[in-house]
Amino acid sequence: xxxxxxxxxxxxxxxxxxxxxxxxxxxxxxxxxxxxxxxxxxxxxxxxxxxxxxxxxxxxxxxxxxxxxxxxxxxxxxxxxxxxxxxxxxxxxxxxxxxxxxxxxxxxxxxxxxxxxxxxxxxxxxxxx
Length: 129
Description:
This protein is mainly alpha-helical. 82% of the residues lie in helices and 0% in strands. The longest helix has 38 residues, at 91-128.
């Protein structure tokens, strides 16, 4: 049975971004593995936190997981930028991964806002009872 998170576009695009990041990291010289490790961990966290958020029933916790995923996306972008500044990544190659991460982070922003809105609606409904 296919888990519902696998059907999410944001999940699929986060995986695509992870693959792009990994391909970039495979080209790094050994002296720059610290950049590769950080970029891979952060990109993996985007995927994993998105999945956790999708599985969460409580709207505020769901929103928190999507915020964490988005922050990990930004962390991934920062790690890639470090690689560009240190001249171990080609800026044009990083731009492809960066755009994918921008799309993922935008989706996560919207998902976070929707979950927060749902939580506010639930609070209002509870107060009316």
